[in-house]
Structure formats: structure tokens, C-alpha cells
Amino acid sequence: MVTGAGMVMGAGVVMGDGMVTGAGMVTGAGMVMGAGMVMRAGMVMEAGVVMGAGMVMGAGMVMEAGVVMGAGMVMGAGMVTGAGMVTGARMVMGTDVVMGADMVMGVGVVTGDGVVVGAGMMIGADTVMGAGMVMGAGMVMGAGAVMGAGMVT
Predict the structure, then answer these.
(1) Closest listed residue to residue 140, CA positions, set 25, 33, 41, 64
(2) Beta pairing, strands 38-40 & 20-21
(3) 118/1 Cα distance (integer angstroms)
(4) Is the pTM above the cut of 0.90?
(5) Whole-angstrom Cα distance, residue 8 to residue 2?
(6) Per-residue pLDDT tens over the stretch 56-111
(7) How far apart are CA 41 and CA 25, in angstroms?
(8) What are the residues facing 140 on neighbouring strands?
(9) Chain centroid, CA 64 distance in Å
(10) Cβ-count burial of 107 within 10 angstroms (0-12 exposed, 13-18 middle, 19+ buried)?
């Protein structure tokens, strides 16, 4: 694992009960969320979706079974994107989860079966994982997904 801007998380790193992060996933400034990335059971972030300043959420992008990203949409249990969501700097992607410049993804992230990662964990330039974000068991965050090659924060 390389820490700092463009930090690589994984190549098949398992982070809980069946949860896989990585498979070439790169985090850092300029992040791209896509390439068939699965964020929850049945939840797909869609290939080529760019999240950043003036971000594109994708045509018909699905982030949970039958749920389409838009204003006020829900991205899974208790996670809301859209309502109060800022695209680019300080983008809110869920419960106390901020993505953007000085990106924060929870303090004490629970991944899988009670496994906690984060607690102030730095992942790339000004990126912190933590703040009570729960990522369920069996959830895949990668499988070729690139999280660091184009996003302007």
C-alpha cells in the first residue's frame, strides 16, 4: 500500500466479511468512481462516472437496487446523496461522509463483519476515511474500479 496522493488501496485487499477493496483501486486527487464499481449489494456506480467539481453523476446511474442518483436520493440505508450534497469540494455522500477537497470518508469506518478501518486514516492528499460510515458485508469497492484518475476536487 502506498500512502500519500494517489495512494493505492488493494489489488484484492479484503476488508471484512467478503468485502473486497482495491483490485487496482487508486485513491487521491482526481478520483474517478466507476468502471463497474459495486458499492453495496446490487449497487453500481457505473463505468466512467466522474465525481468532482462540476461532477457528472452519470445517465441512469444506479446506487442501490432501482435507486437513481439525483436530488434527495438515498444511497442505501441511512446514506443520502443529493440533499445537501455538494459536488466537488466538500461533497456529502452519506452519514457524516464528505468527499471532495480534504475528503473525509468517516472516522471509524466499519467494513464488513464489525471490522473497523480508518479512525483518522489518511488515504491520499488530504483524504481521511472515518466518521461512522458503514459499508456492509459482501460489499465490493473495486474489481477494477479506479478511485483516483480524473476527479477534480
Answers:
(1) 41
(2) unpaired
(3) 14
(4) no
(5) 5
(6) 333 333 333 333 333 333 333 233 333 333 333 233 333 333 333 333 333 333 34
(7) 19
(8) 20
(9) 14
(10) middle
